[in-house]
Amino acid sequence: MADLEKAKVNCLAQATEVINQAEARLCGFIVNRTFMEKIQRLLANIRLQIKSEVANSKMQAAALKSSLEKLHAFAHPTADRKALTSEELYDFIKVVLKELKARSQYLDCLLASTTRPDDKVG
């Protein structure tokens, strides 16, 4: 009877040890899964931010390209288009320069020592 009781205690101890090991592994898996889910959400958010930045960049580049094409058209007037006055051309160039500056700042390639026609010299 003592041997049966001893075997029962050993069996119970082994089962408890196996259960504890399984629980520890399961906790590790749960932590890993939670970590992976957070990483996946973070990556999804980053993808959205990148797509948004790309869209903004493309829109800014298209607007700048359009302005430069208009400027080129103003520089080479045709018979069917009336010529701009110097004031209209100056105002348009100021807009183009603002777009160029915004694009340069966005691309982080603005030169520090640049001057614009409307900058006042001291």
How many separate domains?
Answer: 1
In sequence order, what are the helices and strands, one letter per element? Answer: HH
Number of helices: 2
Give me the count of strands: 0
Q: State the separation between the terminal residues, measured CA to CA.
A: 108 Å
Low-confidence sequence ranges: none
How much is the average pLDDT? 86
Helix content: over 70%
Q: What structural class do you assign from the helix and strand content?
A: mainly alpha
Description:
- The protein is mainly alpha-helical and 122 residues long.
- It has one domain (2-106).
- Helices cover 78% and strands 0% of the residues.
- The chain contains two helices and no strands.
- The protein has helices spanning 2-75, 86-106.
- Helix 1 (2-75) packs antiparallel against helix 2.
- The longest helix is centred in the N-terminal third of the chain and has 74 residues, at 2-75.
Question: Topology of this protein?
Answer:
Layout: H1 2-75, H2 86-106
Helix pairs in contact: 1-2
Short key terms for the protein model shown above:
122 residues; mainly alpha; 2 helices; rod-shaped
